[in-house]
Design goal:
There is one protein chain. The chain has 2 domains: 1-32; 37-82, no CATH class. The chain has a 3-stranded antiparallel beta sheet. β2 (45-48) and β3 form a beta hairpin. The mean pLDDT is 86. With 82 residues, it is an alpha+beta fold. The chain has helices spanning 3-23, 56-63, 71-81; strands at residues 39-42, 45-48, 51-54. The chain is built from 3 helices and 3 strands. This is DNA/RNA polymerase. InterPro entries: DNA/RNA_pol_sf (IPR043502), Rev_trsase/Diguanyl_cyclase (IPR043128), Viral_Replic_Matur_Polypro (IPR051320).
Length: 82
């Protein structure tokens, strides 16, 4: 019980995720695969048990962005926000 059950459940969740990736035809490289981590960066977001959050450096870039003056500036800002 206790921590052993938590580790077993985590291993089952990892197995379930890898199985879904395989069924979807996705591939996973060992350089990008992080197992047994409390958080991970997935598609530009920080994912954890609590949910998803934007990456801090992206939030800082948006917060520190100068107000757009030209149409090109507006397009650049919208590209950054994605």
């Amino acid at each position: 019980p206790g921590i052993r059950r938590f580790i077993w459940e985590h291993a089952l969740n990892v197995n379930r995720i890898l199985h879904r990736l395989k069924c979807a035809g996705a591939t996973v490289t060992t350089k990008k695969l992080l197992l047994c981590r409390p958080t991970g960066e997935i598609v530009g977001q920080l994912c954890s048990y609590e949910g998803r959050q934007p990456l801090p450096h992206r939030v800082d870039a948006i917060r520190d962005w100068e107000p757009p003056v030209t149409l090109k500036d507006v397009r650049s800002f919208l590209g950054l926000c994605g």
